């Protein structure tokens, strides 16, 4: 495993830890999109099906379990925890996320590496992950007050896929890995969706001002 | 083997 891949995984893990910290310590999910979190549950559930069938490494298995358990528990907190769920911005989080699922699935049926159940679901998870942040970005744009933990959560989440791009370049150049257009293009789209957010995040960080996205 | 390389990422 190269340094970009490890850094990417750690940033991903960090983003989830930041979100859980917010939920546990502030007992709040204000500014967090339940729609995005539900999409992540679907992403991980379809991608990590192979946890029961193929063994890669101890690291791989543990990380998959962590991502599955944490994504399910975040959704549980937002839906069912008696304090946390009251902080959910239901009226602002109106993105129709179901509309993202069907096109991603159809695309996975059409464009995949191999037409098997596992491969189509894996591909579907890549396409869906690429756009899963959209409800969250829309919610951030509507929020007047973005607290630090929420801003950092989205920043780390975006940084994770950005680092994966470097990982893929490294693997292609140094490890002579094959051309893998499906994850590369999905990852590029995913990272590009954060461009605007990154711009305002870094700007506010430099000026030490509170993060606010223009409407 | 090819599948293994594809799927070892998270």
Automatic annotation (TrEMBL), chain A:
Pfam families: ER_lumen_recept. Keywords: Endoplasmic reticulum, ER-Golgi transport, Membrane, Protein transport, Receptor, Transmembrane, Transmembrane helix, Transport. One of its GO terms (cellular component) is endoplasmic reticulum membrane. One of its GO terms (biological process) is vesicle-mediated transport. It is found in: Endoplasmic reticulum membrane. One of its GO terms (molecular function) is ER retention sequence binding. This is ER lumen protein-retaining receptor.
């Amino acid at each position: 495993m190269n340094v970009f891949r490890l850094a990417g995984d750690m940033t991903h893990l960090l983003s989830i830890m930041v979100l859980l910290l917010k939920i546990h310590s502030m007992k709040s999910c204000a500014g967090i999109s339940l729609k995005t979190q539900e999409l992540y549950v679907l992403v991980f559930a379809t991608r990590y099906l192979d946890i029961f069938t193929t063994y890669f490494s101890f690291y791989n298995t543990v990380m998959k379990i962590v991502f599955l358990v944490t994504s399910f528990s975040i959704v549980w907190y937002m839906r069912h925890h008696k304090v946390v769920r009251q902080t959910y911005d239901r009226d602002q989080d109106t993105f129709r996320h179901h509309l993202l699922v069907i096109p991603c699935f159809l695309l996975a049926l059409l464009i995949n590496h191999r037409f098997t159940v596992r491969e189509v679901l894996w591909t579907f998870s890549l396409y869906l992950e690429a756009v899963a942040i959209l409800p969250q970005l829309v919610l951030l744009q509507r929020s007047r007050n973005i607290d630090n933990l929420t801003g950092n959560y989205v920043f780390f989440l975006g940084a994770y896929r950005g680092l994966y791009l470097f990982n893929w370049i490294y693997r292609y150049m140094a490890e002579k890995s094959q051309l893998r257009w499906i994850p590369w293009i999905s990852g590029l789209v995913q990272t590009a969706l954060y461009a605007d957010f990154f711009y305002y995040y870094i700007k506010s960080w430099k000026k030490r001002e509170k993060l606010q996205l223009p409407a | 083997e090819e599948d293994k390389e594809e799927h070892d990422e998270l």
